[in-house]
Amino acid sequence: MPERLLAALRTEGVTVPFPIQAATLPNALASPAPSSPSSCRTSPARCTA
């Protein structure tokens, strides 16, 4: 995870991820963001409101 994000989490006292976070964050951070709304129609799991 990016050091800036880790530092912000440490500031809040968050030092260990929940198991679901540990399992999903690496893939989520490695995936590029959808480039257009049409990407959300073909891969809705990658789009959030």
Please provide a written account of the structure:
The protein has helices at 3-11, 19-30, 37-42. The protein has 49 residues and is an all-alpha fold. The mean pLDDT is 78. It contains three helices and no strands. Helix content is 55%, strand content 0%.
What integer value in Å does the Rg equal? Answer: 14 Å
Global structural class: mainly alpha
* Number of H/I helices: 3
Largest sheet: none
Specify the overall morphology. Answer: elongated
Q: Helix content range of the residues, please? A: 55-70%
Query: Between the first and last Cα atoms, what is the distance in angstroms?
Result: 22 Å
Number of strands: 0
Which ranges are low-confidence, i.e. pLDDT below 50, for 5 or more consecutive residues?
none
Q: How much of the sequence is in beta strands?
A: under 5%
- The topology string of helices and strands comes to HHH
Mean pLDDT: 78
Keywords: ATP-binding, Helicase, Hydrolase, Nucleotide-binding
Region (Disordered): 28-49
GO molecular function, one term: helicase activity
Protein name: Superfamily II DNA/RNA helicase
